[in-house]
Amino acid sequence: MTQATFAAALLTPDLPCPAGLRAWNGSDPTARLAVYRNNVVSSLIGAVAHTFPVTQELVGEAFFRAMASVFVRQHPPRSRVLAHYGAEFADFVDGFEPARAVPYLADVARLERARVLAHHASDADPLTAETLGVAMSSGEDLGALQLVCHPSTSVVLSGYAIVSVWAAHQGDGDLSDIDPAVPESALVVRLGLDVLVLRLPPGAARFVIALQTGAGLADASALAAGEAADFELPKVLALLLGHGALISVQLPGSHFQ
Amino acid sequence: MLPAVPKVRSGAGLPARSGVGLKPEHFRDALETRPDIGFFEVHAENYMVDGGPFHHFLGRIREHYPLSLHGVGLSIGAEGPLDEGHLDRLDALMKRYQPASFSEHLAWSSHGEVFFNDLLPVPYDRATLYRVCDHVDRVQERLRRQMLLENPSTYLEFEASTMDEAAFLTEVIRRTGCGLLLDVNNVHVSCVNHGRDALAYISSLPLDAVGEIHLAGFATDRDAVGAPLLIDSHGAPVDEAVWSLYAAVLARTGPTPTLLERDNDVPSLATLLAEAQRAEDLMLAPSEPERCGIAWGGS
Predict the structure, then answer these.
(1) Which DSSP symbol is given to A83?
(2) What's the predicted TM-score (pTM) here?
(3) Are A77 and A146 contained in the same domain?
(4) Spatial contact of B43 and B179, defined as CB atoms under 8 Å apart
(5) Residue range A91-145, pLDDT digits in tens
């Protein structure tokens, strides 16, 4: 028997126990293969539950584990590093028919996945307001300045109140006071050792995404203002600086210390 | 020809004391209270990330304790070649944290692209022996150090097996010069699961190659005819049967670096330290094998 045969039997419980396996007491090896089948699936469900605790709370443990058991068989890990596992989970939840009753479930999963990535992202010292001030008063073309985001930074866009829902599950606010249909976008960033989840003001999500794709201050601001007339650059810069979401400021070809 | 691996006991760097697995929920507690233990052990794969709290805390804890790096994803028993990218990641961790010991399992955990996150069994036949030896040789060559190979917990046997597990391990150790990570819980689990005598199994291993011992808890199930089937759960305190077996091993090996493993239902650090203390008390007790009530079979 090859490992391919054994591997297929692990993830497909309907497959018969492969030939060539035995037990010392002559008992049916299927019951013993079941230990491996259970170890694999339950450890992977555990890994998914570890990454998506609020997603689990929103639907309850029994529903979540049933959903995750389908997921881990369809999308077993491709990496030996389990911190990377679960990239496809939110899209899977989007398409999981029984979860339709909680329309914001997949976006909450996206937020939780972003938190895990931020937790393990590279370290980098935050940009200080002083350094940014030096760059902005350097007489250079202000609009061309590029702000570099911390490696842990990401934006999660949603048509639902994912930040409020997530925060309520951390004991911050009451779920019953939340209208889930209010769109919210989240900034996820690690400040020191702690991963933060912040509600972004109008236009700020577009602004951060523009920065991450290399846009200068003028272009990023224009994109943000085009989306939200009340976009306020100073307020958003203060928010990003204050939470360690920026690490450097540069002009193409130069760098401010 | 045997590979030229220095015949240094792998545990040479780990003190002959007890240690515990370092869990993220204990990072702060461990750093603030600095418990008097011999070493910490971590799963290598948990630290194959770019930055953040895992590296922050491990770096600080490493300043105060020897470290055992224990891999769970190298898939040494796999039919396919070793993942060189994974070896590179291990090498980077070695350089960064300078562990006193590196260990892995006699098992496979990946097939093709898929990682199963479990330690899967291999048949004990010539083809597997040659392959496992090739893989251990490659690990020791790439990491430029001796590794320890851990005996597995298994639930099934293969009709293709032509030697018993102890003979297989002995042969791998002889051919590659690797050391043995003797998991006493795995010995108990596998021997109950396959109707073997645990002391006879241990007696037929090259105990002078033991660089580290693992102790852990198991769960109890039943097979298709109601025979006990023990599951290596790492989710319970060490069983009394395993403590007895451990004392019997110590009577033969003398004090040996010993890890208390707990990966599920992790209790407080204090609870783990109490188990580690019990291991150390046994290690330092005068050798009295009869005290543990176990009689060695003929060996």
Answers:
(1) G
(2) 0.93
(3) no
(4) no
(5) 999 999 999 999 999 999 999 999 999 999 999 999 999 999 999 888 778 899 9
Is B50 close to A122, i.e. CB distance below 8 A? yes
How far is the alpha carbon of B286 from chain A, nearest alpha carbon, in Å?
37
Residue A160 region by backbone torsions, left for phi larger than 0, else alpha for psi between -120 and 50, else beta: beta
- For residue A79, what is the nearest residue in chain B, using CA coordinates? B115
ipTM: 0.94
Task: Compare all CA atoms of chain B with the CA of A1 and give the residue at the minimum distance.
Answer: B160
Distance from CA of A194 to the nearest CA of B (A): 8
For the residues of B33-75, what is the DSSP string, one character each? H----SEEEEEGGGG-SSSSHHHHHHHHHHTTS-EEEE-SS--
How large is the average pLDDT for residues A15-31? 97
Contact in structure between B176 and B5 (CB atoms under 8 Å): yes
Contacts of A71 (CB under 8 A, 6+ apart): A48, A88, A89, A92
Instruction: Check B51 against A121: CB less than 8 A apart.
Output: yes
Instruction: Tell me what pLDDT residue B288 has.
Output: 54
Question: How many independent structural domains does chain A possess?
Answer: 2
Residues 6+ apart with CB under 8 A from B27: B53, B57, B61
Residue where one domain finishes, among candidates A102, A135, A163: A102
Which chain B residues touch A29 with a CB distance below 8 Å? 156
Query: Do A220 and A251 belong to one domain?
Result: yes
Q: How confident is the model over A218-253, as pLDDT tens digits?
A: 999 999 999 999 999 999 999 999 999 999 999 877
Within chain B, which residues score under 70 in pLDDT? 1-12, 286-299
Q: Are residues A93 and A133 in the same domain?
A: no
Instruction: Report pLDDT for B6.
Output: 40
B159: which chain A residues are within 8 Å (Cβ-Cβ)? Answer: 20-22
Q: Which domains does chain B have, with CATH numbers?
A: 10-286 (3.20.20.150)
CB contacts, 8 Å: B160 with chain A:
1, 20
What sections of A75-198 are H helices per DSSP? 89-94, 105-120, 129-136, 162-168
Point out the residue among A29, A47, A81 whose CB comes nearest to the CB of B156.
A29
Residue of chain A whose alpha carbon sits nearest to that of B89: A81
> In whole angstroms, what is the distance from residue A120 CA to residue B162 CA?
45
Could you tell me the residue range of the domain that residue A74 belongs to? 1-102
A16 lies in the same domain as A98: yes
Answer yes or no: do A27 and B224 touch at CB < 8 A: yes
| % of chain A with per-residue pLDDT over 70 | 99
